[in-house]
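ZP: hey, is the adenosine-5'-triphosphate complex queued? I don't see it on the tracker
AM: it wasn't, my bad. submitting now with these inputs:
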Amino acid sequence: MIHTNKLTKHFKNKKETVEAVKGVDIDISPGELVAFLGPNGAGKSTTLRMLTTLLSPTSGSARVAGVDVVADPAGVRSRIGYIGQGNGGGHSYRVMDELVMQGRFYGMNGAEAHDRARELLITMDLQELEKRTVVKLSGGQRRRMDVALGLMHSPQLLFLDEPSTGMDPQNRANLWDHIMRMRVEHGTTIVMTTHYLDEADSMSERVIVIDHGEIIADDTAARLKSNLAGDLLAVEVPLDSAQAARAVLGRAAADGDLDESMQNGTARFRVRLPDGARLAPGLLKALDAAGAPVTSLELNPPTLDDVFLELTGRSLREGVDV
Ligand SMILES: Nc1ncnc2c1ncn2[C@@H]1O[C@H](COP(=O)(O)OP(=O)(O)OP(=O)(O)O)[C@@H](O)[C@H]1O
């Protein structure tokens, strides 16, 4: 569905050249749900804008839905839906009319556009609002309508640029319910960008992590987490057994790193384990046998932020509103 070869975008300002996307190779198959995840300025939107023909690449190539983005941008656009960041300006048309107009724009006749609009109003739970003018919709309703607009011409491939930024948790969950339903009903391939770690984790099947214009990881969220981060185990032992605990835990640590702190007669250690749930019981026994009885234990599965931290030494949360 998407194939890129060393796709690159440089922006030239007066004094400097910004290398926003540095030769990325991306392959996405039909039906996949893929999230581009990365910090501010990583190059996610620029990549998406090249794939949707809104920007032309500096070099490299991209085929989207079987069509080259440079040779036939109109062909790409007719096959994809694109829902950009934020809402456009206010619209004084009614919801139904706006959808029908979009269908007409894509060459549908009036009856086809009407039927398709009615179908999408149901999928996106907007049927009660078909006569309301677009400016009067709430933020969440407006975003669902944006998605409906992007789907009017039944694209095989839908691009969502930060679909839920600025929404409250309830509206985000609601939007995702609708997107997932649409996906099941129409088998649409979805490519999205997001800042929200939990969203990339729970909604997408595959996460492409972008940093400084390069792809630094590409896998399922589950595999990224288990391969790169591991579970985080925190144990407390009495202070006088800290040395024994340090030796046992140091051997078990995935990366040899032990984080330790002392407080109120207790030593607290934090260590990453590749498969914590399976290893923790044996480790408790080993600690006990070494004379370091565990007084408290906490086991946390890794997050995509841990993955990013492991890959870059930085947290994705830095400077990001999550
Ligand atoms: N039109 C432009 N002119 C100059 N530089 C640009 C332009 N558009 C983007 N950039 C720069 O390219 C880099 C990548 O920007 P991009 O918008 O792709 O990042 P992003 O990962 O989508 O970030 P965000 O999550 O903040 O939307 C940034 O350094 C940005 O400042």
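AM: back. The two ends are 31 Å apart (CA to CA).
ZP: great, adding it to the tracker
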